[in-house]
Amino acid sequence: MTNRSRRARRAFKTFFLGLFATIALLWGANHLIGVEWTSLLRWLGISVLALGMVIFCAGVSVFLYQKFLKPRR
Questions:
Q1: What is the pLDDT of residue 62?
Q2: Has residue 72 got a pLDDT over 90?
Q3: CA-CA distance, 67 to 69, in Å (whole number)?
Q4: What is the predicted pLDDT for the residue at 73?
Q5: Which of 31, 35, 33 is CA-nearest to residue 43?
Q6: Residues 65, 71: Cα–Cα separation, whole Å
Q7: SS3 for the chain, per residue?
Q8: What is the distance between the alpha carbons of residues 62 and 66, in angstroms, rounded to a whole number?
Q9: What's the Rg (C-alpha) of the chain?
């Protein structure tokens, strides 16, 4: 087994476990606590948009730093 396939398998496992945990959290909130699916999916969408916005702002910040503030050699 190569190092690359081990890394890819570990990344897939992490993605799958995160997805499974998210689904379990949503199911538990709906089934055990009684939160409506529409509310859960709305808040999940808002969370994904907020995370995307944070990632975008970080990318813009790094770009601006490298473009204008980083000393050139």
A1: 94
A2: no
A3: 6
A4: 65
A5: 35
A6: 10
A7: CCHHHHHHHHHHHHHHHHHHHHHHHHHHHHHHHCCCHHHHHHHHHHHHHHHHHHHHHHHHHHHHHHHHHCCCC
A8: 6
A9: 19
Opening angle at CA 70, ends 66 and 71, nearest 5? 140
Half-sphere exposure of 1 (CA within 13 A, CB side): 6
Q: Residue 1 pLDDT > 70, yes or no?
A: no
Q: What is the mean pLDDT of residues 57-62?
A: 96
Is residue 40 a contact partner of residue 29, using CB atoms and an 8 Å limit? yes
The sign of the CA dihedral 37, 38, 41, 47 is: negative
Q: Which residue is listed with tokens 């980083």? A: 70
Query: What is the tens place of the pLDDT at every residue in 12-28?
Result: 999 999 999 999 999 99
